[in-house]
Design a protein that fits this description.
The complex is a heterodimer of chains A (about 120) and B (about 120).
Chain A: E1 4-7, E2 10-13, E3 19-25, E4 31-38, E5 42-51, E6 54-57, E7 64-67, E8 73-78, E9 87-94, E10 107-108, E11 112-116
Parallel strand pairs in A: 2-11
Antiparallel strand pairs in A: 1-3, 3-8, 4-5, 4-9, 5-6, 7-8, 9-10, 9-11
Chain B: E1 4-5, E2 10-14, E3 19-21, E4 24-25, E5 32-39, E6 46-52, E7 60-61, E8 64-69, E9 74-79, E10 88-96, E11 106-108, E12 112-117
Parallel strand pairs in B: 2-12
Antiparallel strand pairs in B: 1-4, 3-9, 5-6, 5-10, 7-8, 8-9, 10-11, 10-12
The chains are: A mainly beta (about 120), B mainly beta (about 120).
């Protein structure tokens, strides 16, 4: 039971470098999300997707891009990493609300710890 | 204004005792859901319990129960018979299920760090 898998688990980047975080889910969920977690801030939504080929901005989208080319994958990209993007990144997925999933939670990956030097 | 407020940055409880973690929310959407997640020191997010705005009864899941007071807009988590393994960060989150909306984002509170003492 893989659920939601994030790769990599840890990464250190230098300012200005780029990288892509990969999220894969095997639950056939329509919705996928990227959050960042900073100390004392809870989780904040970066971008989300309601289906293959669609993405939308969340609460803190600046400096990030996303793509959902396949239903099971949601990629988060940092084009030019900045120290302010040092954080723990979580991917999550959930079912469509209308599919009797009103009480279904978002399922989270284990997180990616990213440090920008 | 914050949509989810958790006023207790940290809480302590003795093993085997009950503890209540506070959560208040703010929404004008008549249809919404409230979730509690546990985040142990290992970092993963574990779903605990859900309460829907139209649910007539308070939600319960094993040792977890939700004290839902709709008029006060509060959804406090009650953990009975605390165990050492309950030591973790706890997050309250809300999903506004506005009619016609196609997204079901969660808005999280800042969390409460619970420490269970032996």
């Amino acid at each position: 039971n893989a659920g939601v898998t994030q790769t990599p688990k840890f990464r250190v980047l230098k300012t200005g470098q780029s990288m892509t975080l990969l999220c894969a889910q095997d639950m056939n969920h329509e919705y996928m999300y990227w959050y960042r977690q900073d100390p004392g801030m809870g989780l904040r939504l970066i971008h989300y997707s309601v289906g293959e080929g669609t993405t939308a901005k969340g609460e803190v989208p600046d400096g990030y891009n996303v793509s959902r080319l396949k239903k099971q994958n949601f990629l988060l990209g940092l084009e030019s990493a900045a120290p302010s993007q040092t954080s723990v990144y979580f991917c999550a997925s959930s079912r469509l609300h209308g599919q009797g999933a009103r009480n279904q939670p978002q399922h989270f990956g284990d997180g990616t710890r990213l440090s920008i030097l | 204004a914050q949509k989810i407020t958790q006023t207790q940055p940290g809480m302590f409880v003795q093993e085997k005792e009950a503890v209540t973690l506070d959560c208040t929310y703010d929404t004008s959407d008549p249809s919404y859901g409230l979730f509690w997640y546990k985040q142990p020191s290992s970092g993963e997010m574990i779903f605990l319990i859900y309460q829907g705005s139209y649910d007539q009864q308070n939600a319960t899941e094993g040792r977890y129960s939700l004290n839902f007071q709709k008029a006060r807009k509060s959804a406090n988590l009650v953990i009975s018979a605390s165990q050492l393994g309950d030591s973790a960060m706890y997050f309250c989150a809300m999903r506004e299920e506005n009619s016609g909306g196609s997204n079901y984002k969660l808005t999280f509170g800042k969390g409460t760090l619970l420490t269970v003492n032996p």
